[in-house]
Each structure stands twice: as C-alpha cells, then as structure tokens.
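User: My instructor asked us to take a sequence, write out its structure as tokens, and then describe one feature of it. I'm not sure where to start. Here is the sequence I was given:
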Amino acid sequence: MAREFLDDKVWEKEYGPFKVFVYTSIEDIDPKDMFPADTNPVEQICKDIQNGDKIWVIARADVYCKGVELGSATIGGLLYKNYDELIAEVCENDCHDIVHEALKEARATMKYLREVKIPAEEQLTSQFMEGQIW
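Assistant: Let's start with the prediction itself. The structure tokens for your sequence are:
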C-alpha cells in the first residue's frame, strides 16, 4: 500500500550529539522525464506507481543538535518497491550517502559557529527566526 503523506518521517538515528531524521515526499518529476523510454519500461513504472506497487519519492535527511538544525541533504528520483526497501538502501546501507552528507554539513556548521563565537542565545534567536528550530 502506498503512503499518501507529504514529508513523512521514515527513519531516525542518533550519531553522538547529532540526531538525524529522514523524511520522504512525493516526487514531483514525472518518471518519463527521468527514465529514457528506449531503455526502461517507463509506462509500466508509471502504472506501478499509480497502483501503489512502487513508490516514487524524494528523501531528505535533516540533522539536529540540541534541537537546532545544523545540516541537511536531499536526493530525489527514488523508485522502490516499498518504504522498507528505501530505508534499507538509503538510510541503513547509506548507498546514496544522504545521511553522511547531512552529518558532514552539520559538523561544518557547528565548527563555523564555534569559530564565530556568537553567544548561544543569539545563535538560537536567529535560527528560530529562520524556522530552523525543531
């Protein structure tokens, strides 16, 4: 059965002080624009997505530390039989490095904030104003 929710949280894991959340959204791009018609059964792929036999999504990994978003990464055009298959490959096996890319960005952001030495209250205020507090 296909999920109909946008921004559906499908996975989370802690990495030291960081907590990673992976969300999926329905992919807006038509599969016909992603797969060459002469090399793939595009019509069958489209039918499978419509019938709920496959999912066609975008995945986004967000990394937080103490409730503040520090990094994210996105990958689209994901075609899988189901969410379990997607989670196994994209999150747990890290085949697409989405989790690693988001963690790398979070570590760089944390390093930058330490170098800038902005008072913690000011950092949180600016992130709250930008809607990055979780």
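For the description part of your assignment, you could build on this observation: The first helix runs from residue 31 to 34. Try explaining in your own words what that tells you about the chain.
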